[in-house]
Amino acid sequence: MHRHRRHRAAARTRRRSAPPLRFLLPSLVMVALMGLLLLRGLVTNEVFHDSRVAESVDKTTVPRHLLTGGPVVDSRHGRERSYRPADRTVALTFDDGPDPVWTPRVLDILAKHHARATFFVTGAMVSRHPALVRRIVAEGHEVGVHTFDHPDLALQSDTRLSWELAQTQLALAGAAGIHSSLFRPPYSSRASALDDLTWPVVRKAGARGYITAFIDTDTDDWKRPGVDAIVRAALPRHPGEGAVVLMHDSGGDRSQTVAALDRLMPLLEAEHYRFTTVSGSLGAPSAHTAVSGFPLWSGRVFIGFVSVSVALLPVLVALLAVVGGLVLARFALMLALSFRHVRRTRADGFSWGPPVTAPVTVLVPAYNERECIAHTVRSLARSDHPVEVVVVDDGSTDGTAAVVEALGLPGVRVVRQANAGKAAALDTGLAHASHDLVVMMDGDTVFEPCTVRELVQPFADPRVGAVAGNAKVGNRDTLIGAWQHIEYVMGFNLDRRMYDVLGCIPTIPGAVGAYRRSALAGVGGMSDDTLAEDTDVTMALHRAGWRIVYAEDARAWTEAPQSMDQLWSQRYRWSYGTMQAMWKHRHAVLERGTAGRFGRVGLPLVALFTVVAPLLAPLIDVFLIYGMVFVDLGRTLLAWLAVLAVQAVCAGYAFRLDRERPWHLVSLPIQQVVYRQLMYLVLLQSWITALTGGRLRWQKLRRTGEVEAPVAAV
Strands 217-218 and 182-183, how do they pair? Predict the structure, then answer.
C-alpha cells in the first residue's frame, strides 16, 4: 500500500473538497431508502390515511333533479345531468380492488357468464397489483377511479382531491396504459344521498373531466350478511328496470360475494337481463382513454418503484431483525464475558507468573508531531519500569526530532528516516531496539508511570506474544471528545475484555501495545499491506499460534480527533484497513489450532460487529423516523428507548469497570444516533473503495498537544 506523503498541498485541497462528495452517495442511499419506505406506506394506507367519514347534512345546494334522477351524474362543462341504465340492463360494479385473491375469482365468474362489469379501483391497490388491472382491461371490463387511498373526499382539501385523482390515474397509466373518466367517491351510495358536503366533490370532479357513478342497489356484501341476502339485495327494485349494483372485490373475505354473484347472474339472465359496464348501460363509449408518451412512462416508473418498495420492506425488516439481534447479542456477550474477565483478572492471588522486570524498548513512530511529542517522551521518562525510548522520525518537516533532542532525556534516542509510513517506521525502530520486549505507542499519546510495567506483566506467560493496553481519550471535554470517550470505554475496551476471554483479540491498539520481538520476527515484522498495521500484525500473531491478552491497567491517554472531518478520516482509515486485514487473513478460517480458533471465532465476530452491524445500524433510525411520523409515535419511541436502555446498561457497566465518572453518559442518546450515521457512511465508502480497487493514503490528523500524562487514572 503506497503511503508516501507527497504533494501534501494538493492532498489538503482534495481533503477540503472531499466532504460534500463523500457524503453524497451515502446520503442519496439513505434518502432513497426513506423514500421507498414512504412509498410503500402510501400504497398500504399507512401514510396519509384518513378513515374519517362525513355525517350527512342538508341538501340546500344540490340540484333537485339530481336527487331524483339516475345514478350516473355528469357535472362537466358547468351542466348537471343524470342518467339511468337502459331497461333490463345491470351494471355490476365492484369497489376497492383489485385484490389478488378475490378479483380473479370475480373475473372468472364474469367470464363464465360472458358478462362485462366495472371495477372502481383504488390507486394504492392498482400500484400493488398492476397485472390484475391489465387482466380487467384485457377481458373487456371497465375501470373507474375510486381515489388512491380511499379517504372521504368531503373532508379533504381541493389539493388532496386533485392528488387522489391524479395519483390514481398515474397508477392506471403504469398498470394498463389507460386513464379513466369514470369516478366513484368513497363511502358514496345513491344519488339521492347527495348533500351539501358531497355535492361539491362531484362538481370538482366534473370540473376535472370526470363522470360520477353512484348506485341503484347496495348489496351490503361488505357486512357478510349471507349469500341469500346479497342476492336479494342485488335484484332490481322494479321488474325490468336497469340498475347499477354495488359489490366489493376487496377489503376482506369476499367469499359470500363471489358465491352470490354466481347465483345472481343466472337468475337475471333468465329474466332477459344483460350485464355490461356503467358506460355500456348508458349506451356511451368506454370511459378508457389510451395514454402514451410521458404519462405512460411516468406511470410505469411509478409502478416499478412501488414494486421495489413493497418487495423491499420484508428485506429491510429482516435486516433490522439481523442488526437488532447482533446488537443484543453483542451486548449480551460483552456483559457476560467482561464479567468473567473481571472475575478472573481481579481475583485474589491472580498473577501471570513471576514479575517481569526486564528492561523494555518503547518505540514511538512520529510524523510531524511537534505539538505532542514532548509530552509523550516526558511521560515515558517518568515510567516506573526501566525503558529505552526510540523515537523514529518518519521524515517530519516540523522539527519533531529536534524537539525530542532538545529535551536531553537519558535513555531516549532519535532515529531519522525518509518518510515511508508508520509500518516502516516501526520496523526501523525494531531494528534499533535493544530488548526483547517492545512497547509501541503513537506520537500523540502519553503513558502513566505504571503503564509500561502493567503492559509487560503478561509476558511472564511464555505463550503470550502480544498485549493490548487500555487506550483512553484525553481530550474529552468537548462533545465530540465525550462521544469518543464513550466509544473507547464501551466499544473498544469492553470489546477487548470479551475477545480476551474468547482468545481472539483482533487489534492491539497502536496507542498502547507490547510485543515479543521474537513473535514479531516470526510474522515478518510490521507489514504495510494494509492501512491498519496494528490489526494486521495482531491477526498474523494469532495465526502464528501466539496468545494475545488485554491489560486493563496499562492506560494510555491519546488525543482524539476534534472535528467530524478528522474523525471521518481516522475511522475511514481504520474501517478500510480492518477490511483489508480481514481479507488478507481470511484463510485462517480453514486453519487449525490457535489460528483456526481465531479464524472461526474472531474473524466472524469482527465481521458481524465491526462491518455488518454498523452498516445496517442506520435502519434503526430510518424505522424510528418512519414509525414516529406515520405509524405509532408512542410504541416506536418505547421500542427505541428500550434499545437505548440496554446500551446505557452496557455503557454504565463499562464505565464502572474502567473506574470512569459516568456523567459523560448524558450524551449517550445523541452519540448513538450520530455514530450510527457516521459509521454507516464510513463503511459504505470503505466498501466502495474496496470494490472499485481504490487506494487510500495515510492521512495525518491535526494535533494540539493538549493531552498530558496524568499521575494517576482519572
Answer: unpaired
- How far is the C-alpha of 505 from the C-alpha of 539, rounded, in Å? 8
Q: Virtual CA dihedral for 314, 316, 321, 322, nearest 10 degrees?
A: 120
Q: Could you give the maximum distance between any two Cα atoms of the chain, in Å?
A: 116
- Reported as type and span, the H/E element at residue 364 is strand 360-366
The cell for 135 is: 387482466
C-alpha cell at 161: 382531491
CA-based end-to-end distance of the chain: 38
Which residue type, as a one-letter code, is found at position 48? F
Are the CB atoms for 497 and 581 separated by under 8 Å?
Answer: no
Per the rule left: phi > 0, alpha: psi between -120 and 50, beta: everything else, 546 is beta
- Cβ distance 630 to 41 under 8 Å? yes
DSSP letters of 431-497? Answer: HH--SSEEEE--TTEEE-TTHHHHHHGGGGSTTEEEEEEEEEES--SSHHHHHHHHIIIIIIIHHHH
Length of the chain: 714
Residue 444: phi, psi to the nearest 5? -110, 20
Catalytic residue among 74, 95, 195, 394: 95
Instruction: Write phi, then psi, for 21 (nearest 5 degrees).
Output: -70, -40
Low pLDDT (below 70) residues in the chain: 1-27, 691-714
Taking the model in full, what pTM does it have? Answer: 0.72
Q: At a CB cut-off of 8 Å and minimum separation 6, what does 696 contact?
A: 531, 572, 573, 576, 689
C-alpha–C-alpha distance, residues 255 and 123, integer Å: 23
8 A C-beta contact, residue 548 and residue 468: yes
Q: pLDDT at position 36, please?
A: 83
State the catalytic residue, choosing from 141, 150, 248, 485. 248
Mean pLDDT score across all residues of the chain: 88
Strands 288-290 and 178-180: antiparallel
How far is the C-alpha of 136 from the C-alpha of 249, rounded, in Å?
12
What does the pLDDT look like over 289-310, one tens digit per residue?
999 999 999 999 999 999 998 8
CA distances from residue 63 to 77, 188, 199, 674 in whole angstroms, order as listed: 16, 17, 9, 61
- DSSP-H helix ranges across 255-372: 255-270, 278-281, 293-345
CA–chain centroid gap for 172, Å, is 32
Residue 536 annotated as catalytic: no
CA 590 – CA 596 distance, rounded (Å)? 6
Catalytic residue list contains 95: yes
Q: Which helix (H) or strand (E) holds 682?
A: helix 668-692
Report phi then psi at 557, rounded to 5.
-110, 120
The radius of gyration of the chain from alpha carbons, rounded to an integer in Å, stands at 37
Taken in order of first residue, the domains within the chain and their CATH numbers are 64-291 (3.20.20.370), 320-692 (3.90.550.10)
